[in-house]
Design a protein that fits this description.
Two copies of one chain form a homodimer. By secondary structure, chain A is an alpha/beta fold. Chain A has two domains: 7-107 and 248-272, Leucine Dehydrogenase, chain A, domain 1 (Rossmann fold, 3-Layer(aba) Sandwich); 109-245, NAD(P)-binding Rossmann-like Domain (Rossmann fold). Chain A contains ten helices and twelve strands. In chain A, helix 5 (108-118) packs across helix 6, helix 5 packs across helix 9 and helix 9 crosses helix 10. At the A-B interface, helix 1, strand 2 and helix 2 of A face helix 1, strand 2 and helix 2 of B.
């Protein structure tokens, strides 16, 4: 029940129609007795810098969830960002510190990382392959780097994207071995499909699954179907897998912690979410 | 249930703690199946002009409810205002037209007017006395003028306030006879206490009730108790009365109509409101 003591989390993006966060966070806040509300705010690019400044001038703003098309722009509008933001080149969470500075973090990849960690994969010292260096591939790579991997192989059909991501990784994590140009999963502990391949029936697989070994953990970002053809093939080879929607629900506890709320589990969030059909 | 198609009504003021509108509008929207939400936005004076501009840059903004301390400032920030705003010197409702202009109206007094009209008082050609020329007194006088009264007597302990209001009334409604300097209710069809007198136990009455005739309708703005000492005295003299909270609930249908929503009755709003104790 919204009242005069309710704190706002601004969910800023455009268009708003496909926003899912209000239907995940708000039922959780109600369940947990937290007097806060995620409010969808449709905002186009020209209006965004002024809006971000204005919402953080509110006395009851708790934070902002930033989504398309503003994740990249946001990086340049803040006082402080994490290495994850710098590597991802994008920011999806903003809060104001007690002294009034705006700080940003990026949790798109953190959801993926928390998911595989909770499934038992310790990322410290691991070798990973990320196929796809678009927004989500960059975010996952950034969070994997923050989680302590030893080496990363990056592949994108647009090689400049993979190279750019590789350079940002080297700048921020000089100890991580970065390789670009190959999507061969052989020898990797973790393999991620961060391309849209799998969204549509008949899409080619993002890599040669015959090169996957059973000990490789395989993750997916496509959410349209739970078990994509890629995950099904990987599972058929004995691999442990993570479905795309885990990334969504696993990142929310990270956001809750960032905003300073009581946190919860991805399972509870799934149970209380009212996403409809 | 807030989702990506929800429209926002920004409830802007400071402090927000005593806001009541979210607990009146939002249960009504839910009952009526209207996908909109009143969102409290705490905003202090220096940040207000930029915030107002930014919220009306949102693609899903439906309107704004403006409250303390911004009602006066708002008048100067809009493209178009009603005569009610000009007389009241304040604005508490803003919307954006299809061509992008910001227009404002003022419903604090409209709630009072609708209330007495629905209780059977036809204001056309009537003589009224308004005691108190602060914000609420100005708003009620402005709405009474718009409703077609013939004459108005204005009184305030600060005579400059009553005089200023009188001048604005004459400028916008030259046909209305305006008198200032007396709080004598004799001969009036309607008498309004628009002062805070009655909020605290032992407050003096705002006027000499022995001068009230039974045919005079008596209204009150104080909401702390339903039947204030003033209303009780007026009722004792046989007068029909209107309690302060009627003003609150009667103004909401006016707001709903201004924003282009399906409207409802004050009774229904009272029934669904969740104002707590």
């Amino acid at each position: 029940m919204i009242n005069g003591n309710t704190e706002i989390i601004a969910h800023i993006g455009y268009p708003t129609h496909s926003f899912k966060s209000p239907m995940i966070y708000n039922p959780y806040f109600e369940q947990a007795g937290i007097n806060a509300v995620v409010v969808p705010m449709g905002c186009q690019a020209p209006e965004y810098p002024a809006l971000l400044k204005a919402v953080f001038g509110l006395t009851n703003i708790r934070g902002a969830l930033i989504t398309m098309p503003h994740k990249v722009t946001t990086v340049g509008l803040l006082d402080e960002v994490t290495p994850t933001v710098r590597v991802a080149g994008a920011c999806n969470a903003v809060k104001r510190t007690a002294d009034g500075r705006l700080v940003g973090d990026m949790f798109d990849g953190e959801g993926f990382v928390r998911g595989v960690q909770r499934k038992g994969l310790n990322l410290k010292g691991k070798k990973v392959l990320v196929v796809g260096a678009g927004g989500v591939g960059c975010a996952i790579s950034a969070s994997l780097a923050a989680a302590g991997i030893a080496s990363i192989r990056l592949f994108d059909v647009n090689s400049a994207s993979a190279d750019g991501l590789g350079q940002r990784l080297k700048q921020n994590y000089p100890q991580i071995e970065v390789q670009t140009g190959s999507n061969d999963p052989a020898g990797c502990d973790l393999v991620v499909n961060a391309t849209p391949m799998g969204m549509n029936e008949g899409d080619p697989l993002p890599l040669d699954v015959s090169r996957l070994s059973a000990s490789t953990f395989v993750g997916e970002v496509v959410m349209r179907t739970e078990m994509t053809a890629f995950l099904t093939a990987a599972k058929g080879r004995g691999c442990a897998v993570q479905v795309g929607s885990d990334m969504l629900f696993e990142q929310i506890p990270a956001y809750l912690e960032f905003f300073g709320f009581l946190t919860t589990t991805a399972e509870n969030l799934r149970a209380v979410a009212q996403l409809g059909q």
